[in-house]
Amino acid sequence: MKNLILLNSGLIEVNSDNAESNFNVYSTTFVSNLMHYGFIPNNELFSILNSLSKEELFSLWKQIKPALEEVTGANRKMSDFVVYKNFPEEVIKMDEFEYWTKQICMYIGFPNELFVEEEKKRKPLNEKIKFKVLAPAKSNSMDLIYQSLLTSTTKWSDSQFQFIEYFLDNKKDLTELSLNDFSFKINGIFTINKILEKNLNISFDIKDATDVLRLAVAMSEGDLSLRTNTKFRKFKRSERRMLLSLLDKTNNLEDDFAMRKGQWKALLRHLHPNDYKFKNVSNAYDSLYNNKCKTFESKVKQLIFKVKPEIKGCTKCKVDLASKLKDNLSKEDIEQLERLQKELSFKTKKFDTSISKEEESKIYNELEKLLLSRTGYLYRNFHFLYSIFEKPVVLTFKKVIPELTTLQLIKFEKYINSINDRKKLMYAPNGNWNKVVVEDNNKTKIHSCDVSLLTNSIKEEINKRLSSKFTDGITLKKSTQNVFLKTNDQELANYGRGTVFDIPKNVKFIRTASFWSCVTNGNNFFDNGWNFFDANWKPKGTCCWNNERFEVNNEVLSVFSGDPTNSKELDGKACQMIDLYLDKLEVAGVRYAVWNILSYSNIPFSEANDVLASLMWGKKPMSGNTFEPSRVNMSFPLQGNNLTKYIAYIDIKERKLVYVDANLRSSIQSAGNNETLVSELMPAYIEYLSTLPTVFDLFKSLDKKGDTVITYSDKNVDLKDEESAYVFKPSNEKNSFTQIDLEKVINLK
Q1: Which of 118, 156, 188, 688 keeps 20 to 30 A from 247, CA to CA?
Q2: pTM for the whole thing?
Q3: CB-count exposure of residue 636 (10 Å: 0-12, 13-18, 19+)
């Protein structure tokens, strides 16, 4: 696991007491093996490898090879589980009747092997590969990675959750932990729960009542976002005492109880607070059951009604207001609310007030005082409050800018500068992209003068923060506009959805694979599929299990490797591959291609032993093996309680691959069933992606120019030893530098 953690950061741990570095034939073999997996060492690492003996190099290779295979997916041996071993040529030559006769025979139980050609010797892989550069790990590299995980402002990816478990088991100096050590609380709750599960001798601290609720939810394997109700397990007496003790030490207990009454009542029934003497919990418990608890939102609502009393009597206004106060509502209430909103199509308007300007100002001052005590609420509900009060809310928000995180500031700046021009709004209710909503943008326009005021204030604040970190200034490359910051609801990559990868000019085909290991009664399928569209997002065709070839004028533009029945003898393993031929697709008028994995058998990804999505590209589809690790550009294990995953889309004309990572609602039976839906959703989704912050947005406010480089790739950049830089895709083996931790920049205050 340690080697996997380092490799994900572009590092290899290698130690050498030999100061001399001479040409070593065995190190050349070592490098050749690395290249097989798509990696090369930088000059510093190569020099160290040259100083190692044959035995040391062999030992090192044994250590890192499993990590290389895991990162690329090579350990799955996907080529062994593809139906047609001579793919794609074998399928392209088959006529429709032959293909489906063989396929039906396989479905009814005949072994796959009866219907395939003997595997032919393929041409050796002889293509220019864009290798990923590896550097030697430093003595403190693991500590830096651990600290970076703690300071992450977004939810960890599935692999990062695994990494933190390794640190808990192996970090001997870790004796205490506070939730305040984590920049994203859900990550901290996960960690504390693992401490409890593993019964580790690590003390922890939680200061917020809602976070205690999250811990109880984690202990019951529920939804840490608290968006759905949890069926709490039966807690041991020691666990009940621990949770109640944590609750008793928190502030604003009654307020937190009031925010989620139903969830708190469900938990407290399992904790039996009256069995213990925790005074604060007992008092809040009595208030909760006697309906004395008042939420922060209700206090805000009361003051809004005082300033705008006509809203209180307006059904439409009540619906709009309630939508901003969803934390008080049950799941059923929220669903009913959303239906009402659609029916009413309400846009909040300015109303004439029935109270004096003096009284209104007095009440607003009271409201402002309340809002300043909960900057998070003001941040999340700015536009709603602006639709009612306009300028006063802008001035209030300006006051809290120094208190907001850098990530919050750049997100907000991106939002206010784009919202007026957006045609459609796309959002996932409760973070569930399977229920994504697309609606017309009817939000109140934010006046240009207000946008300018807030934008300038934010830029000034961020410039001040960055200046303290980068005293010598930076050189910011525009290429970082293609690197997006991670969002909380994505699951796969450690970079953000919307991140763009340029497809090299020599690449002629793209090959994607879905691999799975899943043993159930009967066959199961995790289908690999592509949908194709023109420049206006009108469907052009599909390539998937029930449409093995996408053809135009008898020209094969995309081809499917066959639909395998899973091998029961080999843990239900199977693999599907699809090839896309880029030049042919462009000639045929295809502009966009969307990649998805669908669980045909209605089995969530998390219930399979293993589901992997992989994307490769190259020049000659019949050269090399069907799966070549050096060609891999994306490789993601699919997990979570989902049946769909849209991973990326390609702009064929621009030769760009864009990371998506969304569980969009879809028919799981076939990618072909989703053409219309995808054509409707993707334009709105792309517009949504354009509103997300990038690395460029993070650094653009720093007005001091200097030598610290912030770039997408260092291909044409010279970086000296120990120089600090941010490079998204290290590709220059001559460079040696210290990678800037973006999380530390984001957390600057």
Answers
A1: 156
A2: 0.84
A3: buried
Tokens of 469: 């970190």
Mean pLDDT of 438-457: 93
CB 582 within 8 A of CB 479: no
In the predicted structure, residue 315 carries a pLDDT above the cut 50: no
Last-in-domain residue among 665, 689, 713: 689
CA 428 to the chain's CA centroid? 14
Do 574 and 662 belong together in one domain? yes
Q: In this structure, are 510 and 539 located in the same domain?
A: yes
Neighbour tally for 522: CB within 10 Å = 8
Q: What is the DSSP string of 557-610?
A: EEEE---PPPBGGGTTEEEEEEEEEHHHHHHTT--EEEEEEEETT---GGGSSE
Residue 328: is its pLDDT beyond 60? no
Q: Is the pLDDT of residue 320 over 60?
A: no
Nearest to 596 by CA among 580, 581, 613, 579: 613
| Residue numbers of the domain that contains 555 | 488-689
For the chain, what is the mean pLDDT?
A: 86
**Does residue 88 have a cis peptide bond before it, meaning omega lies within 30 degrees of 0?**
yes
Contact in structure between 51 and 18 (CB atoms under 8 Å): yes
Residues 210, 260: Cα–Cα separation, whole Å: 9
In a domain, 177, yes or no: yes
- Positive or negative torsion for Cα 706, 707, 708, 712: positive
346 contacts 319 by C-beta, under 8 angstroms: yes
**pLDDT tens column, 466-485:** 998 998 899 999 999 999 99
Q: Which residues of 471-505 are buried (b: 16+ CB within 10 A; e: fewer)?
A: eeebebbebbebbbbbbebbbbbebbbbbbbbbee
- The reply to whether 498 and 639 lie within a common domain is yes
CA pair distance 182, 176, nearest whole angstrom: 13
pLDDT tens for 546-588 read 999 999 998 999 999 988 876 666 678 889 999 999 999 999 9
pLDDT exceeds 60 at position 606: yes
- Contact 701/463 with Cβ under 8 angstroms? yes
* Contact (CB, 8 A) for 314 and 321: no
Q: What is the pLDDT of residues 651-669, one digit of tens each?
A: 999 999 999 998 888 899 9
Q: Does 739 fall in a domain?
A: yes
CA dist 422 and 687 (Å) reads: 8
Residue 347: which pLDDT band, with cuts at 50, 70 and 90? very low
Q: Residue 371 pLDDT > 50, yes or no?
A: yes
* 541-545: Cβ within 8 A, 24+ apart: 541/590, 542/670, 542/671, 542/672, 542/675, 543/578, 543/580, 543/671, 544/578, 544/670, 544/671, 544/672, 545/576, 545/600, 545/670
Question: For residue 290, what pLDDT band results from cuts at 50, 70 and 90?
Answer: confident
pLDDT beyond 80 at 643: yes
- Within the chain, what is the greatest distance between any pair of CA atoms? 88
Per the structure, how many domains does the chain have? 3
CA dist., res. 49 & res. 30, Å (int): 8
